[in-house]
Each structure stands twice: as C-alpha cells, then as structure tokens.
Amino acid sequence: MRRDYLLLGLLAAAAMALPVLIANPYYLSVAIVIGINLIIVLGLNLVMGYAGQISLGHAGFFGLGAVISMVLTSEQTPLEDWLRAHSWIPGFVVSAGEFIHQLAAAHMALAALFAALFTGALALLVGIPTLKLKGHYLAMATLGLGIILQIVFKEESELTGGPSGLGVPYFKLFGRAVDPNTDSYYYLVWAVAIVALLVTINLAHSRVGRALRAIHEDEMAAAASGVPVMAAKVTVFALSAVYASVAGSLFAHYMTHVNPSPFGFMFSVKLVVMVVVGGMGSIWGSILGAALMTSLPQFLTVLEDYEMLVYGAILILVMMFAPKGLAGLADSAWRRLREPRP
C-alpha cells in the first residue's frame, strides 16, 4: 500500500507538470480525454478485475451522467415544461425538479453530484436482479441496459434534444467559468482522476477489496467464509456507475455539446478493452490501458473504418499472450530484474 501511495504521488506530480512540458493544445486535449476515460476504467476494473463480474453497459452510465449534467445546466433545456407535461409525475417531484434545476444552474458541481447520486441509485436498483446472473447472461443483461439508456437519450427529444443533442455551458467553479480549451480544465479533470485513484487504492486494500477478490476467485467459498456476496457485488456495481457518471459530467462540460452517439455499444467495448489491456485487478493497469487505448486511435486514423476489428484483434492477442495485461508484463519484468543471478 505504501508503494501505491508513492506511485500516486509521482503520478500527481507528473500530471500537474504536464501542461508546462507540453505546449501543444492537441496533446493536452488527448490528456484530458485520458483522464476522463481513466475515471470510468477505474470503476469498471473494480467490477471486472476485483469482483469478477462482466459489464457491457458502463457507456450508458457514462451517458447518463453527461445527459443529467446537460439537462440541469443547459439554458436550452425546458426541464420544468417537460415535468409538467407528464401528468403521472407527482406535484412534489415537479417542485423538487424545478428547485434542483435552478440550484444546479448556479452551482454546476451540484449538477454533477446529483447526476452521480441518481446514476448510483439506478445501478443499485438494476444491479439487484441483474447481478444474480452469471457469465454471458450477465454480459447480455448489462449490454441491454446500456442500449435502453441510449434509446431513452434519443427518444426523449423534448428533454435531451434527441439525436442532435443540446449545448452545455462551461463548467463554473467558485463562480468562474472554466474554459475546456485551457490548462484549467485539464487540472480539474486530473484532480478528480487523482481523487478517484486514491479512493480506489484505499478500497482495494480494505476489507471490502479483499472480499471482492474472494468473490472473484470463488463465490461459494467466499459466502462460506462469511462474505455477503450479493451485497458486495451490487455495491461495487453502483460505485462503478458513480465513477462513470462523474466522468460523464466532466465530458459534457468539456465537449460543450452532448448527443447520444458517444454512449453506444462501441464505447462499452472500448472500456472493456482498456481494462483487459491494462490488466484486470490492477489499479495501475487501468492507467496504462486508458492511456494506450485512448492515444492509439489518434495515431491510427487510417484504420478508422476498421476500428471494431482493431479493438477485437487487440483484445484477442492480449488474452492469448498477456492475460494479466500490461501491468502483468511490467510486474514480471520487474521481478526478473530483481532476481539474483547465479
């Protein structure tokens, strides 16, 4: 654990120094996207790498965070009219929605917080029946959830703008707008990513993290040892959804325009590839996977039409020749260097 804190400190120092070393705004924008993807991958790795559950629906949670932040902060969103137009919505919910809308428009961090709470609550409710499934049944169920959320984003055009989406204002922090094209937004994203890393490290080394690893190895043995298997799986699933929602809120204010297209099945596949390539069950592998798989398309633009094929091939090759991912390869190389030579 001490080593993890040391590496976290080094990463934080490198992240803070990067804008000084890199003057090119394009590379800085790639670093911002890496930070956003890292937050999602950290949560997904808790589900896949630690708890051993497959999820293909985290793009939907990512989109939900972005859409809720858009709805609560965008001046183009007629939230009050949409609430009143549905007679089945109770009056106190309409009044609460109006109050939250006004509050979130003035304090945008509260919009991200509300989006995270709503997304986490939805994941908790959906996870209770869904996580009783195993293997490819669980994968299909989570995939269906992601597809349903994307359809809702498209069909509720009065609220979300439909396929065209809506504009999102600059994120305001302490009353000042943070321009996404400046270093300030980079620091905001990576500050959140460092906090997410700190939370993940503490969770991984806690009693909960040991329980999740036990569930991954053998659910029946973990249950026999007194681990509340179902509660642990549902809780970590909801926590990973909160991670994705926070990343979605940052993404919405970075793009300043949100439509449903980035939150489809393809992005869920990319997230799974990031986890597998980096190393399932490795916190630092999440960083490697997010950095590599986010940067790779920037250098392979000629293969844009074969993107799904490339990701599939990378996933197969990693599972065949490096099942523990890049983190596993790095760990093996480090151990060989430290072994005493005869």
Write the topology of this structure.
Elements: H1 2-21, H2 25-50, H3 58-73, H4 79-85, H5 91-106, H6 108-130, H7 135-155, H8 157-160, E1 166-167, E2 171-173, E3 176-178, H9 183-204, H10 207-217, H11 219-224, H12 229-255, E4 257-258, H13 265-278, H14 283-299, H15 307-321, H16 325-338
Antiparallel strand pairs: 1-4, 2-3
Helix pairs in contact: 1-9, 2-9, 2-12, 2-13, 2-14, 3-6, 3-7, 3-12, 4-5, 5-6, 6-12, 13-14, 13-15, 13-16, 14-16
Overview of this protein structure:
By secondary structure, the protein is an all-alpha fold. The chain has one domain. 76% of the residues lie in helices and 3% in strands. The chain is built from 16 helices and four strands. It has helices at residues 2-21, 25-50, 58-73, 79-85, 91-106, 108-130, 135-155, 157-160, 183-204, 207-217, 219-224, 229-255, 265-278, 283-299, 307-321, 325-338; strands at residues 166-167, 171-173, 176-178, 257-258. Strands 1-4 form a two-stranded antiparallel sheet. Strands 2-3 form a two-stranded antiparallel ribbon. Helix 2 (25-50) packs parallel to helix 9 and helix 3 crosses helix 12 (229-255). The longest helix is centred in the C-terminal third of the chain and has 27 residues, at 229-255. The model has no long low-confidence stretch (mean pLDDT 86).
Short description:
By secondary structure, this protein is mainly α. The chain has one domain (2-263). It has helices at residues 2-21, 25-50, 58-73, 79-85, 91-106, 108-130, 135-155, 157-160, 183-204, 207-217, 219-224, 229-255, 265-278, 283-299, 307-321, 325-338, and strands spanning 166-167, 171-173, 176-178, 257-258.
